[in-house]
Automatic annotation (TrEMBL):
ATP binds at residues 129-136. Residues 5-78 form the MIP18 family-like domain. SUPFAM superfamilies: Fe-S cluster assembly (FSCA) domain-like, P-loop containing nucleoside triphosphate hydrolases. It holds the Pfam family ParA. Keywords: ATP-binding, Hydrolase, Iron, Iron-sulfur, Metal-binding, Nucleotide-binding. This is Iron-sulfur cluster carrier protein. It comes from Bifidobacterium dolichotidis. The keyword Transmembrane does not apply. GO terms for biological process: iron-sulfur cluster assembly. It comes from the Bacteria. GO terms for molecular function: 4 iron, 4 sulfur cluster binding; ATP binding; ATP hydrolysis activity; ATP-dependent FeS chaperone activity; metal ion binding. Binds and transfers iron-sulfur (Fe-S) clusters to target apoproteins. Can hydrolyze ATP. Homodimer.
Length: 375
């Protein structure tokens, strides 16, 4: 019995808490494993055992309780030497135990986990010169694409005044507060934080520069992100306080500039990239949105053409390194309609990448960005 119990406990060490990204045994969630001979309809069959597993969740009524118990059942089911019938008893941690866990996590995390030595997270700040060019839609779809491709993906809604990620991801879920440390909301495989998860979409935000900077610091330092492969930031339009704060807090961030084809948008978009002349951020490239509208097989350039390439050329000349036009995206009412339902348009209802030109463009964009920049 002891050998089976130890084997089951070892297997539970591979069950990962979906919020903390750590093993449920490592964080003390498993408080007991007990194996006894099964006394039921299979009692006359050899090698049939009941397995009683006691776990303590970090908070009572944790919304991810079923996910955790499903993973435990799968771990128990992987034991092939005998038939095991799992029984899971779910409780919650005491305040003292939770406080010790949070202190342990904070000690591991440091203040800004994305600046600590050895951090491998790729950080992309999505910028634009003006509003209305589809920057937030690009952020949401790019994040969903990275996640669908298997990358551990996080996103921060750094557009405090014009936050939109909760609507684009289809959730207003409030982050779980673990003794002062927040667990990010999760939708479509993406962990994200937005002031909209606290303020509500109907409220206006009236903050000045110092408070804006503090909000970003809190999103970075007071949230348990784990170790994501990719972090996306949806910046506010222009080159204001938040863009400077991102550059100061995340000097390893790479800038992606979003524009539309017409000169009135592309000329302003170039300015958002030129911020790299004054802060330590590299511009990875340009995304041209709303490039054409397809009607009866013909591509109609409603907003003109060439804006994305103009921005790429201007930035290449000013920054003295190659800033490519990464992709061009169509203007499609269906993309807007799907996005407004709370599902990134690159995904189908099951969260898989769609097999269409729009999703393929984002897949290509993600693959280009994840490659190391050419110096």
């Amino acid at each position: 019995m002891n050998a089976i119990e130890q084997d089951i406990y070892d297997r539970l060490g591979h069950v990962i808490d979906p919020e903390l990204g750590k093993s449920i045994t490592e964080i003390g969630m498993v408080t007991g494993v007990r194996v006894t001979p099964h006394e039921g309809e299979d009692s006359n069959t050899t090698n049939v055992y009941d397995v009683s597993i006691s776990i303590e969740l970090t908070v009572p009524g944790c919304p991810l309780s079923k996910t955790i118990t499903d993973r435990i059942n799968a771990a128990v089911g992987s034991y092939t030497e005998a038939k095991l019938i799992p029984h899971i008893e779910v409780g919650s941690m005491s305040q003292e135990k939770l406080a010790k866990l949070v202190e342990q996590l904070k000690a591991e995390r440091h203040e800004n986990p994305f600046n600590k030595p050895g951090n491998t997270t790729r950080i992309f700040a999505i910028a634009s010169g003006k509003g209305g060019v589809g920057k937030s839609s690009v952020t949401a779809n790019l994040a969903a694409t990275f996640s669908a491709l298997g990358y551990d993906t996080a996103a921060i809604d750094a557009d405090i005044y014009g936050f939109s990620l909760p609507k684009l991801f289809g959730t207003s879920e409030q982050p779980v507060n673990l003794n002062g440390m927040l667990m990010p909301a999760t939708a479509w495989g993406v962990k994200f934080m937005s002031i909209g998860n606290f303020a509500g979409s109907e409220k206006a935000i009236l903050w000045r520069g110092p408070r804006l900077q503090r909000s970003l610091e809190q999103f970075l330092a007071d949230v348990w992100w784990g170790s994501p492969d990719v972090l996306l930031l949806d910046l506010a339009p222009g080159t204001g306080d938040m863009a400077i704060s991102v550059a100061q807090a995340l000097p390893n961030a790479e800038l992606v500039v979003v524009t539309t084809p017409q000169p009135s948008a592309s000329d302003i978009a170039a300015r958002s990239g030129l911020v790299a002349l004054q802060v330590p951020m590299r511009v990875r490239g340009v995304v041209e949105n709303m490039s054409w509208f397809e009607h009866k097989g013909e591509k109609l350039e409603i907003f003109g053409h060439g804006g994305g390439q103009r921005v790429a050329d201007q930035l290449t000349h000013a920054l003295h390194y190659n800033v490519p036009l990464l992709t061009q995206l169509p203007l499609d009412p269906e993309i807007r309609e799907v996005g407004e339902t709370g599902r990134p348009a690159v995904l189908d209802e099951n969260g898989k990448l769609r097999d269409d030109d729009f999703a393929k463009a984002f897949k290509d964009l993600a693959e280009k960005l994840i490659e190391p920049p050419q110096l």
